[in-house]
Amino acid sequence: MSAGIAIQILPQADTDEEICRIVDEVIAYIASTGLRYEVGPFETSIEGGSLDELMEVAKECHHVAARAGARKVSSYIKTVYRQEGQVLTIDQKIGKYR
């Protein structure tokens, strides 16, 4: 794995329940990619083989939220990338805390 992202999708919606429903649809999309991911209370971390692959996933997260009814979609995205070699995995970063 040479790249990882953490993405927080912030859909604009009328109620907390609607926001959660939209975010659930985004997480279902992320799960459908087959990539390793972990949902946290503020963001979802995703591991991938390339930064390009993960940025496509991040872009599609916005489209999924919009199709699910978000009037506007904001996000925070953090990336880690290494051209040669591997980056730390989710398990390497937080496995000892489980």
State the shape: globular
| Gross CATH architecture | 2-Layer Sandwich
What is the CATH C level class, in words? Alpha Beta
Instruction: Provide the β-strand percentage band.
Output: 25-35%
The number of strands is 4
CATH topology: Alpha-Beta Plaits
The stretches of 5 or more residues where confidence is low (pLDDT under 50) are none
Give the N-terminus to C-terminus distance in angstroms.
Answer: 22 Å
Mean pLDDT: 96
Largest sheet composition: 4 strands, antiparallel
SS content category: alpha+beta
Helix percentage: 25-40%
How many H/I helical runs? 3
Structure, explained:
The chain has helices at 16-32, 51-67, 90-94; strands at 3-11, 37-39, 44-48, 73-81. The protein is globular. With 98 residues, it is α+β, with helices and mostly antiparallel strands. The mean pLDDT is 96. β2 and β3 form a beta hairpin. The protein starts with a strand and ends with a helix. The protein contains 3 helices and 4 strands.
Topology, pairings included?
Blueprint: E1 3-11, H1 16-32, E2 37-39, E3 44-48, H2 51-67, E4 73-81, H3 90-94
Antiparallel strand pairs: 1-3, 1-4, 2-3
Helix pairs in contact: 1-2
Summarize, please.
The chain has about 100 residues and is of the alpha+beta class. It has a single domain (about 5-95), classed as Alpha-Beta Plaits (2-Layer Sandwich), CATH 3.30.70.
